[in-house]
Amino acid sequence: MWVVLIGCIATLSACISLEEEVEEVSPLSALKADSAIVENTFSIIYRAPKGIKDIAPVAVYTTNFWMPTFFEMSTPNIKSVPMTKFNDTIWVADVQVPRNAQVISYTVMGVPDEDSLATKNFPILDSRTKRPIKATMYRIAQALIRSHAPTDSVLKTLRAEIERYPDTYDAYILYWSIYYDSKGRTEEALAEIESQMAELRRQRRNNADLLQAIALTYIYGIGDKAKANRALQDSPDSYLHPLNLYNRFTTEIDIDKRELALSVMADKYPTHPLTPKMYRELLYYYIANQKVYADRAAIFAEKIWRRNLNNLRQNGVMTLAVRYLFEYYSKIDLSRTMPYVKELLRLDYDRQVYDAHTILLFAERFAESQEYSGLAIELAAKAIQVLESKEKQAFLNPNAEREFVTSAIENGDVKNDLIGRAYYCIGKAYRRVNETGNAISNLKQAANLCLSRRAEIYYELSNAMMTIDKSDAQEYATLALAFNATPERREWFVKNFKPRLRPKETLQERIEKFRSERPERAPNATLSLLDGSTAEIKAQSEKVYVLYFWSPTSTLSKLLFPDLQLLHAKYRARGVELYAIDTDSALATVKASPSEFAYSFPFATANLAIFSDYRVAYLPSAIVVKDGVIVARHSGYERDFVSRLEADVQQFFVMGEMIPKKKSRR
After folding, report:
1. How many of the other CB atoms lie within 10 Å of CB of 123?
2. Is 366 in the same domain as 279?
3. Are residues 565 and 638 in the same domain?
């Protein structure tokens, strides 16, 4: 390797003190094997090999902007700078490092056979004492973790920080958390940590920053939020830290106290990234419990809409609030939804404040009304324009709640499905105004693209074909039942078509026969479970499988777990197997927070191919499989999601069927 030594030098002015004279250091005499940054200057020095003169080396270095914090997240910046000659063989590049940045690594390009140096993290030294300044060793420990360094090295680096600067409380949080994990999260390790905590509290008289560090260790390192709250009782002001406010928000049972924690957070930290997260989680909690909180959800959503904070718009919380207000008032009077529609229509769609999904949720509701059918067509056409004018993924707000599976976005399934939903809205609206030809052509186009509304599309096609071809209408009606046989749709089928059933043949048997003739086969799949075992979804099995697709980044998909628990408890003894399949983190979130996911149904992960094989695009989604055939789909959150899912399962256990009654011949 020809890069022999790297030096860290400071300018002459940085080396002069009024108290003592410091000898000026030349670049050559300052060469050191262990590099560092002296205040804000980092000098990269390259010695060219003998015999090579015609070179123009370029130094490439990586910096990371940072602030000492337990939740440090930033993207490294890679820059290059030409090197200048110091003498015949030595080249120098002086890098001015911003005060809030750290040089992580560097190499020299444009040199024959040159190898990159191994990644290092260079300490920031004080110009006079040549000792690392505060938080430097803590920062290096963070970098060591990212580079998967041995745990002992990380702990040693953190101890060095704590010994030099005992008030670097972020270092304590990280040290205790890693130590607890390295010891297998045992009671003995916890006792040792708590002994250290108690001694520090005795020495520092319950310093507020120390109590805060102890609380954050309990929350994020040990996983005991109750102990975190007890630790902070001695210093109420510590509750005002944003992470502690968030902890109070998540642990409080009383809904008024949760709103109070959110109110303090919004007033004190309106731009903090946890603020929109708290708004979103509380609104979703209200939405998931509409039987109790429907009116309160509307009041809360109205507060969000009227507050109109920029970060609430950017994070999709405003979209969520307007969606709920639209749904809430549309059940009372569609005319009362107009303020939210006007808000939607005046926006610049390129800003991605509202997405095509929201536009279509509005259009689907208007398409049910003859009075507003024109508005439904206008909105659906606008959605198509938005979708077709953008590249994949661009029409989704990256900061908003996750509503789609990543792979489905990348392969275009989401885009096609949304365009299909737009044609479905247009066809449905045309049927309301009795333009049957336009209705049928748009609905057929929707059937070719849209999977999430397939049963609804066939239902609309059946109704549109009633006056044209009764047999085609019955064919579409049977398809609608085959793909989602709700009780209402069964009753509608019997009322309109009165199918000729064989003696003792039930409507359910007719549906299952149709499914077997035109099946949507469920591919074989292997699921990896939380305990390390595997489960097989076999096409030939007679079992009923319920595959629930969720993501840690989708709040609503997690809020449905308690209802899924009840469904699992009711039907597992009858042969129904329910699996909650993580679409994103390979169960890492479940493993990290076992108490949060303490449900009896199995959590699973699978190869990415399962999402395309089963054509899953929305979060949450559920698929019911019986005899190797997909018999029901639920794509995206809807009110009574689990109740409708249970109805799909229950059809295989219902004893009685709705059969047309014979008229009496009196």
Report:
1. 22
2. no
3. yes
133 pLDDT tier (thresholds 50, 70, 90):
confident
CB 559 within 8 A of CB 284: yes
Two structure tokens written together for 223: 């996983």
Residues 256 and 175 grouped into a single domain: no
One domain for residues 64 and 109 = yes
pTM confidence score: 0.70
Phi, psi of 95 (to 5 degrees): -110, 125
91: buried, middle or exposed (CB in 10 Å: 19+, 13-18, 0-12)? buried
Cβ-count burial of 50 within 10 angstroms (0-12 exposed, 13-18 middle, 19+ buried)? exposed
**335 found inside a domain:** no
Structure token digits, residue 544: 């009923």
Per-residue pLDDT tens digits for 291-303: 899 999 999 999 9
Asked whether the beta carbons of 380 and 426 are under 8 A apart, the reply is yes
299 and 216 assigned to the same domain: no
Contact present, 481 and 511 (Cβ < 8 Å): yes
pLDDT in tens, 528-561: 999 889 999 987 777 899 999 999 989 889 999 9
Residue 328 contacts residue 298 (beta carbons within 8 Å): yes
Burial class (CB in 10 A: 0-12, 13-18, 19+), 612: middle
Name the percent of the chain lying above pLDDT 70.
83
In a domain, 314, yes or no: yes
Same domain, 609 and 499: no
Token pair 């005991």 in the structure block, residue: 224
Parallel, antiparallel or unpaired: strands 603-606 and 629-635: unpaired
Q: Distance between CA 629 and CA 546 in Å, rounded?
A: 12
Q: Is residue 541 located within the same domain as residue 605?
A: yes
Number of domains in the chain: 6
- Domain span at residue 39 reads 6-133
Q: Which tokens sit at 452?
A: 């999430």
Question: Residue 657 falls within a domain, yes or no?
Answer: no
Asked if residue 464 is part of any domain, the answer here is yes
How far is the C-alpha of 18 from the C-alpha of 222, rounded, in Å?
49
Size (the chain), residues: 666
User: Higher confidence at residue 129 or residue 582?
Assistant: 582
Give which of 35, 28, 36, 23 is closest to 86, Cα–Cα: 28
* SS3 state at 253: coil
Q: Residue 110: pLDDT band by 50, 70, 90 thresholds? A: low
Record the tokens describing residue 100, joined without a space.
Answer: 């809030």
Q: Which two tokens stand for residue 474?
A: 């019955």
Any idea what DSSP says for residue 45? E
